[in-house]
Amino acid sequence: MTTILTGGVGKTEVADAVRRLAPPGVEVAVSNDMDAVALLRAGRADYFLGTCQTGAGASLGVLVGLMGAATCHTFGRSVPSGEEINTLLDQGKRVFGFAVDQVDVITPALVGAITARA
Q1: 36 phi, psi to nearest 5 deg
Q2: For residue 29, which phi and psi values (nearest 5 degrees)?
Q3: Which of 3, 22, 45, 82 is deepest in the core (most CB within 10 A)?
Q4: For residues 97 and 72, is the Cβ–Cβ distance under 8 A?
């Protein structure tokens, strides 16, 4: 089973989108940053999708500080290609941030790439 946590200003919207898009066997939970760090470190969650107004700072600030930059990637206002997302997943990225107004574009790409690996 794959567990995806959502956080930030659009956490409920992202969680709803993941639930619509993900196949059976993917668990989704709305979280806050501190709980997400604990769950990711303990192996009780696999990925975190965070949102803020710009996708560049608050979406992942706490997670970058506590998990380390090697595990995190912020898309900011850019829309990643499927190839870019797969490269990031290959590099071990598990924590992603993006702008809340791009939930409808970025969430499907992330969920598709994540669930293709499950």
Answers
A1: -60, -45
A2: -140, 135
A3: 45
A4: yes
CA distance 70 to 99: 20
3-class SS shares of the chain: helix, strand, coil, % to 5? 50, 20, 30
Among 30, 26, 34, 35, CA closest to 51:
30
Residue 3 CA to residue 6 CA, distance in Å, equals 10
Coil, helix or strand at residue 82: helix
d(CA 27, CA 46): 10
- 2-117 — its CATH code? 3.40.1400.10
User: Using alpha carbons only, what angle is made at residue 90 by residues 94 and 15, rounded to the nearest 5 degrees?
Assistant: 35
pTM exceeds cut of 0.70: yes
